Amino acid sequence: MCQSYRKTCLCGRQTSEIFFGKYILDEKAIAEVYCPECSRDVDRGENNLVWDNGWVLELDMQAVRTRAAMMEISPEDVTAQWVFDEGYATWVGITPDDFQTRERERSEIQKIAKTDLKEYMQAMKEWGLRREKRFVAEGWRKAKSRA
Ligand SMILES: [Zn+2]
Questions:
Q1: What pLDDT is stored for residue 147 in this prediction?
Q2: CA–centroid distance, residue 25 to ligand 1 (Å)
Q3: 55 CA to middle of ligand 1, Å?
Q4: Most CB atoms within 10 A, among 4, 36, 95, 121?
Q5: How far, in Å, is the centroid of ligand 1 from the Cα of 57?
Q6: Could you give the CA distance from residue 31 to residue 33 in angstroms, rounded to a whole number?
Q7: 53 C-alpha vs ligand 1 centroid, how far in Å?
Q8: Core vs surface per residue 36-69: b (16+ CB within 10 A) or e
């Protein structure tokens, strides 16, 4: 059983990576993922949806409720937002496609390592801080809960 799961959004333009904390939920709990392009037609205010900067994670609440006891919450009280914030079904990184952008950015910095190790260490440190600030400024759900 895999703890993370890649899912293409409804319009097929983007891929998210979802993490299942404590192995309680799995891909059966994920109904749909919408990127900012395809989330425009999604109704707000449903308790099976998590909104995050235009992205939407839609859970299959039927599947989620069957595991509610394992998450130590009653089936009536469980919402998609709660599941996301508790980390039972959430993005692998701070953002849905963090796994892609992180690798791309990191490989850029790693080029420096070949010429100057000290500068590379510094660049990595600054990159980490810059990323964190950027995520908070952009208003990602996971960045906000850490701040
Ligand atoms: Zn899409």
A1: 52
A2: 23
A3: 9
A4: 95
A5: 11
A6: 7
A7: 13
A8: eebbeeeeeeeebbbbbeebbbbbbbebbbebbe
Cβ neighbours of 13 (radius 10 Å): 11
Half-sphere exposure of 32 (CA within 13 A, CB side): 12
How far apart are the CA of 81 and the centre of ligand 1, in A? 20
Ligand 1 midpoint to CA 15 (Å)? 8
Q: Quote the tokens at residue 22.
A: 């404590």
Q: Give residue 126 CA to ligand 1 midpoint distance, Å.
A: 31
Is the Cβ–Cβ distance between 90 and 21 less than 8 Å? yes
Ligand 1 centroid–CA 29 distance in Å is 19
CB atoms within 10 A of CB 111: 10
CA distance 134 to 143: 9
Q: pTM higher than 0.90, yes or no?
A: no
Distance 33 CA to ligand 1 centre (A): 8
pLDDT in tens, 26-66: 999 999 999 999 999 898 878 899 999 999 999 999 999 99
